[in-house]
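Continuing from yesterday's entry. The apo prediction looked reasonable, so today I'm repeating it with zinc ion included to see how the binding region is handled. Same sequence as before; SMILES copied from the compound registry.
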Amino acid sequence: MGGAHCGGGIYLASTAFDSIRIDNGVPMPVCQHLAHSHYVAPKVHVCAECVAMGDEWVHLRTCLHCGHVGCCDSSKNRHATKHFQATAHPVIASAQPGEKWLWCYVDQQWKE
Ligand SMILES: [Zn+2]
Ligand SMILES: [Zn+2]
Ligand SMILES: [Zn+2]
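Holo prediction written out below.
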């Protein structure tokens, strides 16, 4: 009698950190960078480096480590990627209105 099975291996998606992308019904594990990161809204809505160069960008990305805002890989200057290469800050967030996904450059993973 009394053999209630508690706990063992039950996955509870109960916190914001656990809200990872579900692909084909299978939860994808996220890397440590993403697991410990959460969305941060951009402080500015321009790529300052493009502005300084007189160039244009397509989309903006926010560095979650220092708040740097740079342009995405669809933009010709790719300042967000250059920022990662220069600083090794691994995680960016989309700075586009309505988008709240994160991307880890180190592990090439994303979550939303
Ligand atoms: Zn990572
Ligand atoms: Zn730029
Ligand atoms: Zn940074």
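Comparison notes:
- Residues 29 and 73 are 24 Å apart (CA to CA).
- The chain has one domain: 16-111.
Will overlay with the apo model tomorrow.
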